[in-house]
Amino acid sequence: MDEVNVWQSFLSQINDKVSSLSFNTWFKGLKLLKISDNEIIIADPGKTIKDQLTIYYKDLIDETLIEITGKSYKMIFKDENMYEPPEIISVNNISVVNTLEIDKKKINDYKSNLNPKYTFDNFVVGESNRYAFSSSLAVAQNPGKLYNPLFIYGKSGLGKTHLMHAIGNYITENSNLKVLYTDADTFMNEFVKMTRDTGDKDQNLSYIELFKNKYRDIDVLMIDEIQFLGSATATQQEFTNTFNSLYYNDKQIIICSDRSVNDLKMFEERLRTRFNWGLKAIINVPEYELKVKIIKNKMKNIDSMMDLSDDIIDFIASNCGSDVRNLEGSITRLQAYAAIMNIKNLKLEDAIEALDEYANGRGTFTDNSIGKIMSIVANYFNLSIDDLTGKRRSKEIANARMIAMYLCKLLTEETLERIGLEFGGRDHSTVIHACEKIGDDVKTNGELEKIISELKVKMSE
What is the pTM of this model? Predict the structure, then answer.
């Protein structure tokens, strides 16, 4: 049997022995360079995949090669440029059998905070996030054993939280391990509650016990938005204690941040050192091809009859920023625009009109445009535009959103329908309510009147 047939048989048998997700992540992209008498030389796929193959799949690889050739081979990884690889025949349409037999027992009376809609299967992979994806899957398949801690970082909206939930969902579906997802803000608030003196010693001790049980009596801890602990010295100390307790008991720790470890300047050195103990995986800004895949994937998974032509997809990918939430938000905006304007067949000019202030990350604004007002109000209240257009209803966000709607109605000539569309596709009645409430309150609330005046000044600058 020649080396091409050996390799084809090897991939085929491996695909039958592991899950489709494992095969596609660890084996499908491997390139055969050469088979010698006792070595199979593979193009170096990178540290994450190489570690996974040599540590956790070595026995399976050896067993499969012996079954095919009757002899043992050593798998070697080399620079691809050193060899002239043979033509590799791809393996397609092979049925997959998941041989993983794990106790599916669920933990009762325990809340993981995981969102089941975020999985590895629906994470769109490209060159900019492939390393983070592969690293996350490796951790999910071997929690506490391979990369600990796993530190995922990158700009907001690129998929870090999706990967965290995907790790958690994979672990809970394939094991009986206890997984907890939380964010730094929640951790900090609960720590403050724990340290607050209620005047009742027993109650204070009860809070401390509950807090420690929640964060230390688990197998996998995932902390999102860790950068928000930067100014909380006491909370950092408690997180260090929690980290130590989990780490030295071989429990998996996964951390997400919008900046690298070295950029967490307000963190204590000992905590940053711990973040460097494991693997750091960056998610970069998506390339054009990945943005197109994300848009098409979003269209495939939404309940809508709206169809986007290639030129509209190209416009969105080229002009609506690199934040994945922006790309998905542009689809939602087009849906709302088509519904409100009663457009059945969306054309490129319709998309350009609908996304005129959304394109290029709302980088340019005309005087007193909706986009400009939203940006100024968001900055004034230390919020993001996503907060104003999203579904969060905290008192602070709801108040800022109503003020922004009020100013849009007062200072632009846009219709109520258009204002509602810009604020996340809200109904015009929502805009009316906001305008009436702020209009009434500003007559009797001196502080609100001052805020409105300051915002108007900023819009005239």
Answer: 0.59
